[in-house]
Structures are given as C-alpha cells and as structure tokens.
Amino acid sequence: MAEVATEIAKKVEAKAETPVTVAPTKTVEAARAEEAETKVTVAPPKPVEATNKSAEETSSLVGKLETEVEIKASAGQFHHMFTGRPHHVSKASPGNIQGCDLHEGEWGKPGSIIFWNYVHDGEAKVAKERIEAVEPEKNLITFRVIDGDLMKEYKSFLLTIQVTPKHGGTGSIVHWHLEYEKISEEVAHPETLLQFCVEVSKEIDEHLLADE
C-alpha cells in the first residue's frame, strides 16, 4: 500500500509541475516587444520631403536688393530728413512723394507708424510703415512695411537707409537696402522701386543744398 501511495503522489506532483513550465508572462511580453518594435520602425518619409520642398520654395521667394547714391549733402542732413522731418520729403520730391503723415508715436522713434502717399510705376500708391530701428551714430533708419500696396505682392518688406560720409572729400553715400519675401514666383523683384529710391535721394540732395 505504501508503494501505491508513493506512485500516486509522484503522478500528482508531475501533473502539478506541468502548468508551471508554461510562461504566459513571457509570451505577452514578447508580443508587446514585437508590437513596440513595429511602431518604431514605421517612419514615413513624406513629412520630411514636404519640409524640404517648402524650404526651397521659401528661399526662392526671399530676396535682397541694394544700391548706393552719391550726394553732396552731409550724412547728418540726409538722415534727418527721414528721422526728424520725413513729412518734408514731399517738398523735396513732389513727383514721387505726395505726402507723409504720422499715425502713431513720434517722428524718428522706433515703433512709430508712418503713412506714405507716393507714385510708383505711374500709379498712385500708399504704404504704412513701422520704424523698426534708428541708429543716429550710424545715420541709419529701418522701416518695415505693414500695410499698403506692397503687401499685395510681398509677405514682408524691410527697407533700410544708411548714410555715410564720403572718404577723402565732401558729400556722402546713401546706401539703400531692400529685404523682402514675395508671395509667389510671378511677382517681380522690386528693381523699379530701387530706382525710385535713387531718384528720391537725388531730389532730396538738391533740396538740402538749396536750403543752405
């Protein structure tokens, strides 16, 4: 009887040990690991391609134009026309500038808003500009166009005027710098506006010399 009991006990122990060898926890963990690996390996390239294309298109729409104009007036005199009395520019260049009004702030102060009436390419136009920066020691002023006709063709338009004394002689050099972003490839670069700036510079110079 003892031998029979011992044999039965061994069989019971064998049956009890069988479930223990099954490791469902490992199977679940492996499944989760496989699922996690699948998610990590999925890396669609389309967003990257779209980003690169957008950057290329943006760079082709952004541009800069510069020119220099020699004048006989001093750098300080010319700079003061755009900081202290831009409303007098219409007197100096009546064929190009019809008027200039202060909408907010003070003349020649950063943050101030100025409204221009001008004629470009034979058409009467307007421009609302904010003074972005003024550096008297460099005779520099920067305007940002925030509204008006230019905003129909450009997303952004920045105009900087800096005047430096001419080395080795009297007079000065007016440096015009236009920085912009077109709304599309169909829009032309503003070369004619740069020529407009040259004409205004020459007429302001004549006006300043006449006032001396």
Automatic annotation (TrEMBL):
All copies of domain Bet v I/Major latex protein, residue ranges: 60-211
Region (Disordered): 32-61
Gene3D superfamilies given in the database record: 3.30.530.20
Ranges of compositional bias, category Polar residues: 51-61
InterPro entries: Bet_v_I/MLP, MLP-like_ligand-binding, START-like_dom_sf
PANTHER family xrefs: MLP-LIKE PROTEIN 423
Name recorded for this polypeptide: Bet v I/Major latex protein domain-containing protein
